[in-house]
Amino acid sequence: SEKRLRGIFEKAQKNSPSIVFIDELDAIAPKRGEVTGEVERRVVAQLLALMDGLEARGNVIVIGASNRVNAIDPALRRPGRFDREIEIGVPDKNGRFEMLQIHTRGMPLSKDVDLKRLSEITHGYSGADIAALGREAAMKALRRYLPEINLEDEHIPPKILEKMEVNSDDFMNGFKEVTPTAMREVFLEIPTTHWEDVGGLQWLLLTC
């Protein structure tokens, strides 16, 4: 709300130097021409006014994050407001390998798990996707051991915990549950084409 926005900026000013971080900026400040609610328009206008008054507020830096930068009201992207934009794309193979190492650090991995190989086949996966893949693999592994666990017991027996491992198949099955961020908005459109739309190749058309 407008009141909450003002309160955040006032608090930042009192505690300067400080940073105001706004996640999902597109949800807070969408294009005013595309919203129907008056409240949304007022919130955007309030944020614009607060951004314009930053110099008087001292050492306050405002950082916004968005997965839909083109949905943000263009007035916020003008000089003096959010005028510096840094695009953070999906990680490359080396980055994915490091993330896999981080998110599997506490997992008992079996010897057939090859993180290098996993980093090669996770093209298009963001850090959050890789974290989700690790969780799914762990859940798949846990389900394999469920028949050996008495659900009425408060704790899992140590002998079962000791032999629990997350194997390569668990990761492969985990892939079925996680759609990579970079691929979610990629759709394949198959055009409807008739024979009369095909130019040339008259000899082929005649034989058909």
Summarize the structure.
InterPro entries: AAA_ATPase_domain (IPR050168), AAA_lid_3 (IPR041569), ATPase_AAA_core (IPR003959), ATPase_AAA_CS (IPR003960), P-loop_NTPase (IPR027417). With 208 residues, the protein is mainly alpha-helical. The chain is built from nine helices and two strands; from the N terminus they run H-E-H-H-E-H-H-H-H-H-H.
What does this structure look like?
With 208 residues, this protein is mainly α. It is built from nine helices and two strands, in the order H-E-H-H-E-H-H-H-H-H-H. A two-stranded parallel ribbon has the order 1-2. The longest helix is centred in the middle third of the chain and has 19 residues.
Strand and helix layout:
Layout: H1 2-14, E1 18-22, H2 25-28, H3 38-52, E2 60-64, H4 93-103, H5 115-120, H6 127-145, H7 158-163, H8 168-174, H9 202-207
Parallel strand pairs: 1-2
Question: What's the number of domains?
Answer: 2
Strand tally: 2
For the largest beta sheet, what order do the strands appear in spatially? 1-2
Largest sheet descriptor: 2 strands, parallel
Instruction: Give the SSE string.
Output: HEHHEHHHHHH
Helix content: 40-55%
Shape: elongated
Q: Beta-strand level of the residues, as a percent range?
A: under 5%
Radius of gyration: 26 Å
Domain AAA ATPase AAA+ lid: 112-153
Domain ATPase AAA-type core: 1-89
Protein name: ATPase AAA-type core domain-containing protein
GO molecular function, one term: ATP hydrolysis activity
